[in-house]
Every structure is written in structure tokens, then in C-alpha cells.
Write a structure and sequence with these properties.
Length: 189
Amino acid sequence: MNEHEYFIKTKDKFDIAKTELIKIFNCQTEFPENPFQEEYSNFKFEEFDWILSGEFWPVLKEVADLSFDSEICISVIDPDPEKYFFPNFGFYNWLQLSTAMTALEYWETINKSPPHSPADCILVNSEKLFIYPKSKSWAIFGCRSEGLCVFGSKYNMPNVGWRDLEWAVDLSKAQISQDFSINIRQNFR
């Protein structure tokens, strides 16, 4: 694997990916508000750390296969890709991944740090991120500080390893607050 080969390196490619991201999400939205555009529903949940593990890659590949996608984009927006990441490292903290890669390659890619800055790999330094395929038929929003990620789709897909709303409500009630869990229930029905 070439050094940082899956990372977006040019402003043109970044702008294209950002335009696609905005078609799916309102990126300014904060959890527990729903960042998905209106056509997304069928929400499922999981712990944030799961999406940044090698165990997650087979699940992600399975969902991509169901939507006939061969490429997945991972877009970290906190830390800011334009104000922090690109000026400091010369590439963006956004990935374009082929579903042909292995779980080990996924793990190595999200664990790949910029030169002289191991704390800035996606595995360690990603507070808020989005995952989506080219088809935009499904998408994932994750927020590290709340410890949750949300899967949404434009159509009903088989459950491939995700949990239901009640699980997210119970987890957020136990780990965050009662108000947060009430808002999760209201915003992701």
C-alpha cells in the first residue's frame, strides 16, 4: 500500500466529495439532532468505536454489496479538513476506499498517521465523521464524544450488524443524559 494512497490530496477532488456529502447530510448539525437529508430513514445504531475497527469492514462491505457500490468515502469533518488537516499535512482526512480492500488494509488505512503526527490518524483523531457510497443509497454519521453512530438508508435494507432505536436510547440514557436519549428517540424515529 502506498503512503496515504486512499486519502484525498487535491482541492478539486475534495470539493467534489464535499458536494456529494452535502447532498446526504447537514454537516453543521450536532448530535442528537438528525443530520441526514429527508430521504433517509430506516435508522440503525452502534457504538462509535465499532466503525473504526477491523471488525467493521466486513459489515461495511456487505452493505456496499447490497447497494452495488464498489467505493466508499469516509469524511472526517472534525478536525476540520480545510482549516486544520490540509494546511498542516498536505492532504485531507477524507478517504476514498475500494470495497476490494481487506479488513487489515482498512485498519491500516484508518491508523495511518501524517508524518510526525501519530495522534492525527483517523482512528485517533476523528470526532465527527460521515461514511457513504457513491450511490448515496445509505450513509453513516458518527460522533466520538457521544459514542454513537447512526446508519440511515433511502430504502429498507437487511440489518447487517446494527442495533435498533431502543438500544441507542438506553445507551445514551446510561452514558450521556435523559434529555439526549429523549432527543434521539424524537429525531430518529
